[in-house]
Request: fold
Amino acid sequence: MNFNLTEERQMLSDTLRRFLADKYDTDRRNKILESDQGYSTEIWSGLAELGVIGALFSEGDGGFGGGGFDIAVVFEELGRAGVVEPVLDTAVLAGGLIAATGSSAQKELIESVIGGETQLAFAHGEPQSRYDLDNVQTVADTQDGAIALTGRKAVVMNAEAADHFVVSASEAGGISLFLVPADTDGLSIQGYPLISGGRAAEVTLDGVKLPETARMTEAGKALPVIEAVMARATVAQMAETLGAMETAVRITQEYLGTRQQFGRPLATFQALQHRMAEMLTEMQQARSALINAAGHLEADRNERERHISAAKGLFGRIGRLIGEESIQMHGGIAMTQEYELAHIAKRIIMADHRFGDEDWHLERFLALSAA
Amino acid sequence: MNFNLTEERQMLSDTLRRFLADKYDTDRRNKILESDQGYSTEIWSGLAELGVIGALFSEGDGGFGGGGFDIAVVFEELGRAGVVEPVLDTAVLAGGLIAATGSSAQKELIESVIGGETQLAFAHGEPQSRYDLDNVQTVADTQDGAIALTGRKAVVMNAEAADHFVVSASEAGGISLFLVPADTDGLSIQGYPLISGGRAAEVTLDGVKLPETARMTEAGKALPVIEAVMARATVAQMAETLGAMETAVRITQEYLGTRQQFGRPLATFQALQHRMAEMLTEMQQARSALINAAGHLEADRNERERHISAAKGLFGRIGRLIGEESIQMHGGIAMTQEYELAHIAKRIIMADHRFGDEDWHLERFLALSAA
Amino acid sequence: MDLSYSEEDLAFRDEVRSFLSEKLKPELAEKVRLGRGLTKEDMEYWHSALNSRGWLAQNWPKEFGGAEWNAVQRHIYEEEAARADAPRIVPFGLSMLAPVLQKFGSKEQNDYWLPRILSGEDWWCQGYSEPGAGSDLASLKTKAVREGDHYIVNGQKTWTTLGQHANMIFCLVRTDPSAKQQEGISFLLIDMDTPGVEVRPIILLDGTHEVNEVWFTDVKVPVENLVGEENKGWTYAKYLLTHERANIAGVGFSTAALSTVKRVAKAVNDNGKPLMQNPHFAARLAKVEMELMALSTFNMRMIAAAGAGGAPGLEASMLKIKGSEVRQELNDLTRRAIGPYAMPFASEALEGSNQPIPDPFDVGDATGEYFNNRKISIFGGSNEIQKNIIAKVTLGGRA
Amino acid sequence: MDLSYSEEDLAFRDEVRSFLSEKLKPELAEKVRLGRGLTKEDMEYWHSALNSRGWLAQNWPKEFGGAEWNAVQRHIYEEEAARADAPRIVPFGLSMLAPVLQKFGSKEQNDYWLPRILSGEDWWCQGYSEPGAGSDLASLKTKAVREGDHYIVNGQKTWTTLGQHANMIFCLVRTDPSAKQQEGISFLLIDMDTPGVEVRPIILLDGTHEVNEVWFTDVKVPVENLVGEENKGWTYAKYLLTHERANIAGVGFSTAALSTVKRVAKAVNDNGKPLMQNPHFAARLAKVEMELMALSTFNMRMIAAAGAGGAPGLEASMLKIKGSEVRQELNDLTRRAIGPYAMPFASEALEGSNQPIPDPFDVGDATGEYFNNRKISIFGGSNEIQKNIIAKVTLGGRA
Reply:
């Protein structure tokens, strides 16, 4: 057992933190939030140059990391700064799927992803699927060697910016994955902003025609790889949320220390002190759960998913606590859109709406524990 | 709508409170707790003389009350003083069943119950039944006009003191009730003390022979009346718990006001102040839930039971909070057996183990709400 | 004790129902149900409909043209209005300023201002909070200096709800800077069209514009706009804070929110079944419904006690705490229910978001409402302040 | 980062397992599993078995005859001992007094007392708390006045765990009554057979006798029983409080409690199915299991940091808070699981309760344990004190 970061990871963490402290203050981020694109091309290039995207891929795929703790280190820093750029969707989710199961031709994309030139999106969830991974009604129909995809994908993150989509569809009694260029005929997008920043879209696939080379896995066999990549994405998102919680608590501590009420700083009120102590204690639990999850990404499926669900369930509860308490302890100021905490708290709380919420993972943890 | 007590009920409440303040202090009650009998014959007679037992029966049954708010008023005072005498078991449960469904010969017992001369017990729950009312494996077998009861009853309150038992048994595809004198052959008792005071027993029925006149309801038709009387008993127990919560909070407030730590009274520490404010708020919720339950005892079955389950579910949560918080805010002193709060807190918390706990009523509330 | 309605109560309920079904336009109810921002015209329409029926000033004494409803009537209206998705009555003129004028104002002030509140001629907003004050209201700094027949007002108010629609604001201002905190404060009525008054929007974290900053720079206010005596404003402010308790628990809002959650939870698919049947979601919902059932009775008990001359200051604090918890929990459940569809942002303030966002469960901006309603445990005396009050009363004056 | 055990760790685990299966008598494990009170002989037996193996003084440096285990080894022992239902090691001599002696005691003191702790010749108890002090330990009043070669001790200690078995007590006493609270305190070793020492039982609310009052009336203590310097006792007491952190989270106890709950919940019938399948009970259980999984890693991280020279004072407070919450919740679940059978009272102290109480789920005195373990958030620095410490450190010295 060893709980120390390697020197490389510590360096990456430090560099990324400095970059973001320098480039990504509240004003800058609020401008990005208000922009049509929903993220900054400049920041994106900066992250790529720093090697942040490369750190999420293994050496075999052209990166220099890709382990659970690489993901955790990068996303904790992104979360700390409330970064809305689509690193998770492009690199961990869609990029991760290509790395895990793409053909060698498809894998050629990864180089430009790592270089920051290509954006990706994973179109998987559907209006009826909620958080279930195996509920896919989009259909892949093969006739005369050509594949046609028909269906609707819900709340697809980064859809407008994506150059390519990884799309899931029902086929051969299971789920298949396809790599679909964004400009393919029949694929249409209705985009909108998200309350915690960034943009998503409803994606309609109206008989989207694809060659056999678009196929990523053997027909109907994609579910295990989707689950494995989702596990990595969940670790990324939890790390991001942990970073955001650190920021929420830091801002709240600073506010309590300076804001005067009834002639003394809020930090001297014991009721608030004890609630702050509880928040700090819960954050240690969250960090420990994240370590458990990241440390079991290479374990067998049941063990891996049990740790993922235990951790994500805990993050649901703790995230709500930290998000709500940091707003409440501030009072009115935290209710304003332009205040740093408002954005951070929204990211923390809305994290429960991706990759399964607290109850969904509770149910899953029970099922996995009984198995 | 009207939330005031009638003058009679207010008088009964005042009289009973004075009687108990006078006769039932901590020392006296601790002696009762340590006694073999587990309750005081003298207190019992005193309660009967005051009319406390009569207030739980309707005029038609020889009492002068019997409404939901009569029950609530009496038991709130009993709970306030942490009374362990078996009023609930003798008068509300077994007595209530006799009043509700006994033959006229059986009902003659009520006079001596009201007079304080007769003790009763309701032998219904079984080792496998947990809180379910309809899970009865004790069998009533009728041959040649004689009934034989065989089975085991679990945690039967007041069994050792009871002169008569109301016993439930399976018959004719349903549940029947029988009135069984305690000295009937084949009925044996293994008694033990209870952690919150009073005594109970495991009751074995080994071919207990009864005449047809022992029967209380039409064969197999007793469940609705059991449920209705249980609803009254649940109101009684919630009122008792509310009274106990009032005492727990009062003792805690007094302690916080006098106990010095770091040079000032505990009551000046804001973290404790806020927790006390939360306890007081929750107690108002409990009182309101009790009023809802008591006020719906005469409603139709579904409406009545829905309010009972809503209230008892709430009492489970709030009781645990008040019990645990009042101990915690005291510190060590509340951990000692002889301190008033220890007994009161145990009664509050153990109330969750009768008539269905928080989760059981949650489940039931959901079923009743869907119906 | 008796929990049932009398014949008269039932007849009144029928009156309310038929009024609502007649006057509440479906488009307006729809807006309320989906939590969409109401326009000034929407609110004015509803006030005018109630006023025509004599039901706008529900708590005013009859002598001032009020309906003077009893506790049960107010409860019935609240319940029916929530069930029908009627807009809430904007409280600033009707139930905040008016009781203060009726109790402490001059006859001239009452004769002039009260009819204008009823007719909608004046739209009032509240100038209490200041940026530096927060929960510590008495530390306010906005100054009013007497010069001849006028006060000259300088300072800044904040969190002024619907100030963008208002033409009048009632303010707490400091008239004696040398007095101790709670002394030296006066209660002043200010015309917002006076030169030197400036309203600046505050965008809340859900993207809505409902609160404002109001800045005063050398604003001239006629002395006849002083309510009561100079330097006694704190007394009036406290009266205002403790007076309007009827709806402090927000039972009506929560009742409506509960029915929304249930409707949505029946419509959402959760792994092949309605989410309503998911035991964990169902448990959350049942728990908050149990709380609401108790809260509703708690609220009625307190209204009844207040009506009978009781003064439930302590219980009002408890109602506010529990009421906010219940409502916030219900808002949490709605956003929870819709899963990934909780993420789209329906902000008024954001570019590109004038397009409709996807709303497959017909629930409106559930997430926005969740975030927006974090305010109900903060504004109007935070839950922490309420707990201080409860502790002060129950732990023997210590705080 | 690496969460897996090394080869050496795994070998050590096998050693621990075979030791436990050899030395832990089934009757003793059964008593531990059912939470029955252990006799003095039971505890002495277990100490002696560990001592023979060289594993009694797990944290002592080798120079003093200790095992000097690293963090992982201690964690492994803790886990395996809990799994096997081994008795806990009575900590007063071994992990409370001994580290103080080793750091601040004289060579003579160490040479004399340490071997007697290992051999079991002395049974130590702790004289810290006083009736008037509680969490405010520094306000203690027990006085020791120097007279020639002795101190004369007068006063009263309370909550003295297992004091009924002890022949020695280490005490904090006030030697300079004129000094400020935390100064003027000394650390004294007192033979309980000295005239004037009286031990009185305290019966806890679960009916057990595990704590005591200890009264001192003109008790003569030789000056060589002073540890370190006079009036420096507070430093040693703080060292003691911050030193023994390895098991502060009680992960081993909670792991055992979790397996008890699971076993019982599978055996209990809930409306025709095992209670384990009741979604509400299962949810409670899953939630606390998730917490325990995280807590276990949190605990390991802190042990590792402490082993690497870190000083996790803040985190120790957090571990104590969360550890007590997890354990108390598990105790709650066990009593909850057994339904009506939670009510019987297995008190040692009550007449007529020597008969066995019904225990159909073979769980022992679950309710007693639930009530008894309310203490873990109270004793040894209450959770409120822990939160004060956390706030003091993290909110910049304010408290």
